[in-house]
Amino acid sequence: MERFVHIGLPGRVVYGPGALSDLGEEISRLGVSRAMVCCTPGRRAAAEELAGRFRGQIGTVCAEARPHVPVEVVAVAREAARQAAADGLVAYGGGSAIGLAKMIAHTADIPIIAVPTTFSGSESTNLEGMLEDGVKRLHQSERMLPATIIYDPELVRGLPLEVAIPSGFNAIAHAVEAFYSPGANPFASLLAEEGLGMMARALERLAADPRSLDGWGLGLRAAWLCGQPIVSAGIALHHKAAHVVGGSWGLPHADTHTALLPHAIAYNADAAPDAMARISRALGTADTHPAKSMFDLMQRVGAPVALRDLGFPETGIEQAVAMILAAPCENPRPLAAQPLRIMLENAWRGTAPASA
Hints:
With 356 residues, the protein is an alpha/beta fold. The mean pLDDT is 94. Helix 10 (253-268) packs across helix 14 and helix 13 packs across helix 14. The chain has helices at 23-29, 44-53, 71-83, 95-108, 153-156, 161-178, 186-208, 213-233, 237-249, 253-268, 273-283, 290-301, 316-326, 337-349; strands at residues 12-15, 35-38, 58-62, 88-93, 112-116, 127-132, 135-140, 148-151. It has two domains: 12-156, Rossmann fold (3-Layer(aba) Sandwich); 161-349, Dehydroquinate synthase-like, alpha domain (Up-down Bundle), CATH 1.20.1090. Strand 4 (88-93), helix 4 and strand 5 form a beta-alpha-beta unit. The strands form two sheets. A six-stranded parallel sheet has the order 1-8-5-4-2-3, sandwiched between helices. The protein has a two-stranded antiparallel ribbon with strand order 6-7. The chain is globular, with a radius of gyration of 19 Å.
């Protein structure tokens, strides 16, 4: 009989069309009187409209969020929260906005209400990567776990598919690694398998009909399920590679995770057979290699498949391999230069995954 430790994080989820209208009640429930909204510059107008809608509870907007959460941006946002005497944060947007709120709360110790507008799943974890001196470093703290998550399908319904689809695969990457990361356990795997299958169905549905409110709602529920297990299980090669390639070369976060995903699965296939069986079962493709099944799904729904299309130079492959090996992570298959090189070369080209 196996022994394991599973971490089930607390949190309140408010879900449904129109759920954003409950924001004022959720702010009051947490005893917050001067909330600050965190968002990207592109969402400033929407965030200011939100602040006006809940005037008296939201005091200011910080529209400084950037991909990969650069440390200098965090410093600016922390000072903005201090000057506004903010006693709570509303993260309004995708992983960048949620990540910024997390890093503010990491030192300020104030509650976060997450209002996700993508499928990143970051809102359901107490983990965050921050870009420091050109290297993305992972931080973890209970302070960074949002106290409340408001999932409103109407907020994401207008999201362009070229943003929504990669964010869904970003969430799927959480589930995949939960199957074989150092802290993998039966409870985490149950959540991950359900979340992976649900997100795959949501992406297929949205690719066929972007107007489907049910499809958007399914994706939000799947994002939560995919995010939860990685807190307990931890991360492995896929996240390590994505942080190196995406963070150090400034690539789009979700797109980088997407392009790397089938190749990381292929790298670990022989070393994690139980995980591979779960991935195949969740995708409904038991007779196909899970790496190929994931790649096929990506192609069907129009996901980005090549790192070169995201701006990653072929000349960066050797440097990325060296960076991954310089600070290796636990992984089912030991990390070695040649198979890592093949993994990144395949991901750079966007070719079908192959192990070595």
